[in-house]
Each structure stands twice: as structure tokens, then as C-alpha cells.
Amino acid sequence: MIGVLKSMATTMKHALDGNTFTVEYPDVEPEVSPRFRGVHKFSQERCIWCRQCENVCPNDTIQIVTDDMRNGEQYNLHIGQCVYCRLCEEVCPVDAILLTQNFEFLGDTKDDLVYNKEQLMNVPWYKDIDPLESREPDRSAWIGEGEGEVDYQ
Amino acid sequence: MSADEELVETTVGSDLDADGIAALLGEAVLDREEHLNAPGFVIRPDAVQEVLTKLRDEAGFDHLSCVTAQQYTDRYESIYHLTSYDDRQREVSVVVPTDPERPVSQSAEPVFRTADWHEREAYDLVGIEYEGHPDLRRILLPQTWQGHPLSLEYHQDKPQIVTLDAHKNPLEADHRGNSETMFLNIGPHHPATHGVLHLKAVLDGEQVADVEPDIGYLHRCEEQMCQAGTYRHQIMPYPDRWDYISAGLLNEWAYARAAEDLADLEVPEYAQVIRTMSAELCRIASHLLAMGTFALDVNGDFTAAFMYAITDRERVQDILEDLTGQRMMFNYFRLGGVAWDLPEPREEFFGKIRDFLDHLPGAAEEYHNLITRNEVFQLRCVDTGYLSPEVAKSYGCTGAVARASGIDYDLRRDDPYGYYDELDWEVITEDGCDNYARLLVRMREVEQSARIIEQCVDLLEDWPEDDREIQSNVPRTLKPDEDAEIYRAVEGAKGELGIYIRSDGTDKPARFKIRSPCFSNLQALPAIAEGEYIPDLIAALGSLDIVLGEVDR
Amino acid sequence: MTPTFTPLQNDAVLLPERLVDLLGLGEFGVAGEVVAAFLGAFLVANLMMAMTGVAGPWAKRKITAAFTDRIAVNRVGPFGLLIIVADAVRLLSKELIIPDGVDRPAWDLAPILIASTALLGFAVIPMGSGIHLADPEVGLVFVFAVASMTSVGLVMAGYASNNKYSFLGGMRAVAQNLAYEIPLIVVAVSVVIFAGTLQMSEIVAAQAEPLLVIAGVTIPAWYAFVNPFAFVLFVAANMMEIGRNPFDTPEAPTEIVAGYQTEYSSVYFVLVFLGEFLHIFLGGAIIATLFLGGPAGPVLPGIVWFLIKIWAVFLFTQWLRSALPRFRIDQLIEVGWKGLLVLSFANLILTAIIVGVIA
């Protein structure tokens, strides 16, 4: 009987202390870590079309199309297929691909989730956090892309 | 530990070396092989039971950890990975080659009960038939499947055309007859099956007369996907998805350990400490969820214990997110180390871990008040779901399930890896053998994990700044020696999580086999639950703490 | 004594009587009384159903959330209160799925029976402020009779659903019913011994007398104070009757999916759901009437006190739900037959001796 009463006391204590743990998500944006891996962002002017990301991707999420001179033409990423392993970012020698903190995206059909390089470029930062800061490489090429305007120089 | 050593000494035949074993097995041995983890003995396919019985009774190999089946161009092969509960570092592989035209070998099921499901899986995926197996059916794939997906002749693109007749309702065999019992499908969609598990239960009133787990609903070809990925990068994201309930890093470690030993890679000490710390965080998260869902099974779906456990697990996940960048699918380990150093500012990160560790004893007290000390809960769980140590060993149970049956077996201590042998912690065992003991072991293990984490944090705080090497120098393309074979296991969240890899000299494994602890543990469910009431069956299932992602792979 | 004409109700304190006076229905004789009775029943039933409406979709979620450190419904309306409307629309607009092979009339009748028997019990409960539909001399027997009729509904639902989980739930409901009903009534009999009557209004009146006066505060002779032992027993047996933790075995969602209500959807589900909550409130009303002085209480009007008391019982059920494991069915039956029954008879004998000696 003591144990039963102790159980009841435990839950009542939680009820009375008034603390809640729930995040009111759409109203309050949850905190994410600087290292959090969300939707990709791609910088065309950095990319050297080496195809390492395409090769390392465990499940063919990235598709690169180049012309016969190995100049890049298309960079497509099927975000619905991505497992957010960050290997593409890790192997990229020039930091041309970056996983932002942004985890909010939607599409009505599977096809909507295939992002081309313009869409990938315009992926917004989450809460204006630029994850490159936590990943420490040179970040000059990324400045100004958060608003979707690309500085092609 | 001295008690253990005594035990080892008294075990029959435990001093046998490879030659001794060869002498013991005599003419059954056709050939000798050398696997990286153990000596291998190629034996006659009709001598499997004889050999395994000898090894079990006369050489002390009482744990059939795993059965790996594979096809070479000239033969099929079943490998029985044997080890000992008393001394995990004694291993032996029994290799059974079979004729490519007629792949039949003797079943090991009469010797080790655990071979039942393992051989069914081998039959299902590779196509080896086991003579004398009591029930050789497909286990992961539908009964109507055509071909064996991991065999060399399997034609992947061939459509699976199955006649309507083959698909006829399996329930058509009417259970309404004049029987005294009632057939009940528990699952695949049921509130207490923890995923898509189907239990075929035969009830005698409220009591379970017979129960048979039907698995495979979550089979995602994980082994084949790993065989299609490169060692260096592409395999590592997948282990997170085996036991996906927060145990990701423990699974990653299983692969990392096997692959590192296979390719002979060094791991820097600093990375080992980080690995140890983060893996134990995963264990805490996993055990908390196990406890919470068990409370859900016993208390009902409005219990507060579940939400409290989830809340605390959330705290662990926040820490892991800071460290690895993801909450569940970490992909944090790399061959030869880890992906990232601790996040900056380090003090803040350490502070966060310490806050959690300080919070934990109070939370544990609350859990004990809410769950284990509750008399009604004790009434429900003590002496229900009994699993005797002998049965547990025969079924190859490991992890908390084995330790709750008094089997003192923990790979972190018995087959040390990482930084565990440098730290001060204990292996938890309970002698209750019941649902209650299994829960208690997990709850007490959380405390031990907290101890380990605390020591790791102490070490990491004082680690010299110029010696923080997180990855050793690993070649970008990893090609282990041809025909190297290894079976290595770690203590996963649910038990012994083993990986067998055979290399064929390319940058992808030729055979990648996962020994899932849940697979073996779940197999013991009929032995635990028969004769119990339905609520105890549910509680026993909860206390086994299975994750269907790992059972089905 | 010469036989005289007995009106349907002979006491002016009852609600139908008041309605007759208020609406001037007296001139229509018995017909007027019948109309007034219907009107009164309509009011009381609606009050109770409105309460379950608040309790089911909203209060229960909020209470459970408080116990588990969550926020719960807060998206629709102030404090999420409009979830009641949203949920009602959602549930009622769902498709009514009728499984193959259900035993039709029984399957259809069961939800109605479950909901209506619980409602029927409120007919004899004095709720204060003049809200009391009927006051037969056997009021207490009536209320237990209709409350336990719910079990018939549960068995019907379980058996007619043609589902093994439902069947198990129905069987468990019967077993549980047998285990709790006898102790429940035996404990209630001890109250009857105190009060000397089965009439609900008399039982309430008997509790209005002062028990003690401590520092100027009069403690009324509520039977919960007079005989706390019986009170605890009654609450335990009542938890079994309303089927809530730790005695929610007939539903036991993690074991037998949802027991007898597994196959019900849409409107039928609403009825079953309604019946369950009405049953909790009826249980609360019986506890309040027998042990907590009915609608008695200072300052506030009787009906408010009455509602406070039954909501307190509701809160208590949710509290237990958050904290306690459920018994296994065999253990529950043991608790009923070996524990509660013995204790309740002990209580009865003790009460009889005390009352006999003192009075």
C-alpha cells in the first residue's frame, strides 16, 4: 500500500508543479543544435563538379548532370530520399554543399521533393543560423544567400 | 571477478586450443580455416549435431551466437559462430560447406534451440536446407516468395508473380471447430507489439497455450544494403536504422568494431573515450524507452511513467544532437574514430551532460517510486514470465534478458573494446528470471551507464588540447584482404550485436551478416509466455524489449 | 388504513413537481405530471451529458497532461475548449463501420444500453437545489440495479462484435462484475444500516446532522467521516464498477486492444464512450450521495457542491490512471472475492453491532 501511495504522490507532484516539457511547435520554433542536419543548401559557384557527393551518397539521392566538357549542368537532389547522413557535406572538398538546420519542407507529390540547383540554393537558413559557423571552414561564399539572392561575382 | 575465473577453470574443456578442438572433433573435420576472430573448422555437413554437441558439452562452447549462411561460386556455407557465456573471448567458427547442387546440411536445432530461427533465416535468404529442422519455413519473407535473395542465382528484377491460390487467406483454416482453445492473432497491428510483430497465440481461456511470433514485416534488406555500400562511408548510416530506438551509436560501434578489426585500423584513444561516452548515452536513452514502454504495457496507456521516461530520453537526445547533429540517426562514428570532436564551447557541453547526470538519480528514484516499488506492479511482474538460465542460454539470449536470468555476460567486460576496461563500473545481474528482474536490470544499468559517462567526462575535460585526435589516418578507399572473414560483436542496447563480414578484396563486403540480439531474444518468447495469462504475455514481450527494426533488419 | 390514491410523486421537493407548479401543468393531471417528468429527465440527462462532453474530449486530456508534464489541447478556442465541438463533429461524421458477421440487433443495442443505463441511475440521485427526479423508497436498490445493467450491455457488445478481443473483453467484464457487485452492495448496506432507509433523500438527510463540533466548525455526519473504512472499500469497489485503473481489465488497451468496444466506430463509439463517462459520473454521484452528504456544503448552492463532488471523483479516477498498474484479471477477481468481499462483510457486521449497541 505504501508503494501505491508513493506512486500516486509522484504523479501528483508532477501535476502540481505546473512544469510542462512540451514545445508548442508551430508557435514556438524549437531549438536546434548548430550541428543539426536538415535540408541541403548548394552553392553553384563553389562546386567544382567533382561528383564525390554523388558517389558517396548511400542511396542515390544526388544526381549530377555534366556536359561532355565536365561542366556542370544540373544538380538534383531528391530530398524525400535523403537520410541526412551528411556524407556529401563531409566529402565535399570545397564546401559547396551544406546541410542547414532547416527541417521544414513539404511537397504534395514525390516529384515536388526533387530539388534542382536553384531550389537548393534558395533553401532558407533556419532561424538565420548558418551552420558553417559551427563547422569552421571559410564561409565567404555563403554570405547573402539566405534571402535567395545569389552573388555570382 | 575472481568468481568468474574460477567458473572458467571449472568449465569442462575450456583449456582446449585449436589443435585440441581439432583432436576432439576427430574425423568430422575436413579442413581448418583461420577467421580473424576465431579458428574455423570445416566439417562434414552430416556431422553438425555431433560436432556442436561435442563443442558444447566437452569444450564449453555453450553459446551459439550466430549462424551465417552464404553462397560461394562453388559451394554454400553455413558458419556457426560459437562462443562461451563464461569466457566470451574463446570463439570458434564451425564452417559447414554444402554441395551447390543440393545444399542440404544437418540442422543444429536439436543442440541449440536458437538455431531454429537462424537456420530458417539462412534457408529464407540464402537457400540452404537443414535436415532435421523441425519447421523449415521462410521467416523474413512471405511464404509465397520465389527465390532466395542472397543467393547468387537470384534474379532481382524478376517480378514476384504469385497465383491467387498461393495467396489464399491463411485464416481460412477455420479455428472455430470444437476445440477447447481459441486462436488469437495479436498483431501485426496491436497496441502492445512494439512495432509490426504478429503473435499467433492459442489461448486456453485467458491463458496462453501456445504462442508463435511471426516476424518479417519490417524486413528492409539491411544486410544486402550494407553489401552494396562501401566500407569507408556508405555502410555507417545504416546501423542507426537497425535498432532505431535511440541505440544508433551502439549499432554503429558494432559495424565500426568489425570493420576496424577486419582492415586493421587503429582508433585514437581520445576517440575511444568519446565513443564510450556517447554510446552509453545511447544506452541510457534506449533503456529509458524500454522502461517507459514496459510501464505502458503493464500500467495501461495513460501511465505517467511513460511520459516521464520519454522526457528524460529527450534530454539525452538533446545532448546527442549537440554532439552528433542528429537525434536518432546519428551517423557519427567513422572507421578509425568519430566524425566530430566535442562541440564548442566544450564547457557548456560538459555542463549539459553533468546537469543530466545530476538529474538522473532523482529521476531514478521517481521511477522506482512510480514503477518498481508499486505493490500492484510487483504483483503483476514478480514471478511472471519466467526464463531459466539454461533455457536462456539455449536460445542465445543476451543483454538485459540474459543478465536478468542470472547469466553474468556483458561484452563490454568480457570482450573489452572501446575504453570500458579502463573505467570503473559493474555488470548488473539479477536472479529473478522474471519480468520484474528484466526491468530492474535495465533500470540499474542506467545508473552504471551514468557512472561510465561521468568518468568519460572527467577524462575528456582534462584531455590535453594537442592530443585530441578524433580519427586515425584511414585510406579513402578501404579494401581489406581478400577472403578475410570476421565476426565481431559489441554489447548493443538489447544484447550482443554481432557483425560478420567477409571481404572479397573490393571496397564493398561480399557478405555482411547482422546478428541481432532482439532476433534471438524474441525467439525465447514462447518459452517464457506459455502457460501465462495474456497480460503476462504482453508484459513478457515488453520485458524482452525488442525493436522490430532490428529483429527483421 | 384505507387505500388512497397515490400520486406518482407525493413530495413537492422533486423536480417534476416543481416543473408542474412552475409551468402550470397541474390542470392536466397525470398527463401534466408525465410531461413535467419528461422535461425534468431531459434537463438532468442533458446536464450529465454536457458534463461528459466536457470531461471526455477536454478535461480528461487536460488532467492527463497535467500529470505527465504536457500541455494538451490548446489549439481550438480558449484553453482548447472548442475541441469539444471539433471532436463531436469529427466523431459523428465518421463512417460507421459494421464488421462482417456482427449479431445485428444485439450489436446495435449494446451501445444504447451502455449509455442509457448509466443515465437512468441519475433519476434517483438528489443533486441539490431541488434537482431530484424521483425518490422511490428503494432508490438505492434502483441505482445499483441500473448501474450493473451496464454489464449486460458490455457482454452484448463483446459477444455480438464477432471479434475475439471484444469477446475476451466482454467475458472479463462479466467476471469483474461478479467480483465487485456483491462487495459494493454489502458496503452500501452498511450505510443503509446507519441511515435506516433505502430512500436516497433520507440517506442524504441523515448525513446532514452534525457529527462533531471542532472549534466552532461543525463537521456533518457524512458517512465518509462516520465510517471511513466503508468509504475506502466502497471507493475501491466503485473503481471496479466503472472500470478504471487499476481495474480497467475489460478494456485493457495494451492487452486486448479495446476490449468490448474494439469494433465500434462513429456514433456507436460515441455512445460507448459516453456511457463510460456517464458511468464514472454515476459512480461519483453514488459516492457523493452515500458518503459525502450528497449536495450538502456551505455557501454554494447544492447543485454546485454536488458537481464539485462528482468531479472530484472523476479527478481521482484520472489520478489513479496516471499512477497505478492494472491488475491481471485473475488477480482482480481474487481482490474482489478474497479481499473486498471479506472486508465488506466484516464492515457490515461491525456496523450492525455498533448501530445495534448504540441505538
What does this structure look like?
The complex is a heterotrimer of chains A (153), B (553) and C (359). Helices cover 23% and strands 13% of the residues of chain A. Chain A is built from five helices and five strands; from the N terminus they run H-E-H-E-E-H-E-E-H-H. Chain A has helices at residues 2-17, 52-56, 87-91, 117-121, 132-135; strands at residues 40-42, 62-66, 72-78, 97-99, 114-115. Chain B has a five-stranded mixed beta sheet with strand order 1-2-5-4-3. Chain B folds into two domains: 2-131, NADH:ubiquinone oxidoreductase Nqo5 subunit (Beta Polymerase, domain 2, 2-Layer Sandwich), CATH 3.30.460.80; 222-477 and 487-493 and 516-552, Cytochrome-c3 Hydrogenase, chain B, CATH 1.10.645. The radius of gyration of chain B is 23 Å and the shape is globular. By secondary structure, chain B is an alpha+beta fold. Chain B is 39% helix and 16% strand. In chain B, a hairpin with a 4-residue loop joins strand 13 (485-491) and strand 14. The two termini of chain C are 29 Å apart. Chain C has helices at 15-23, 29-67, 83-92, 104-121, 139-160, 164-195, 200-206, 223-226, 228-242, 253-256, 266-291, 302-323, 329-358; strands at 210-214, 217-220. A two-stranded antiparallel ribbon of chain C has the order 1-2. In chain C, helix 6 (164-195) packs antiparallel against helix 9 and helix 9 runs antiparallel to helix 11. The chains are: A alpha+beta (153), B alpha+beta (553), C mainly alpha (359). The A-B interface holds A 1-4, 6-7, 9-11, 14, 21, 32-37, 56-58, 83-87, 90-91, 99, 134 and B 225, 229-230, 233-238, 304, 308, 311, 314, 318, 321-326, 329, 331, 339-340, 343-344, 366, 369-371, 373-378.
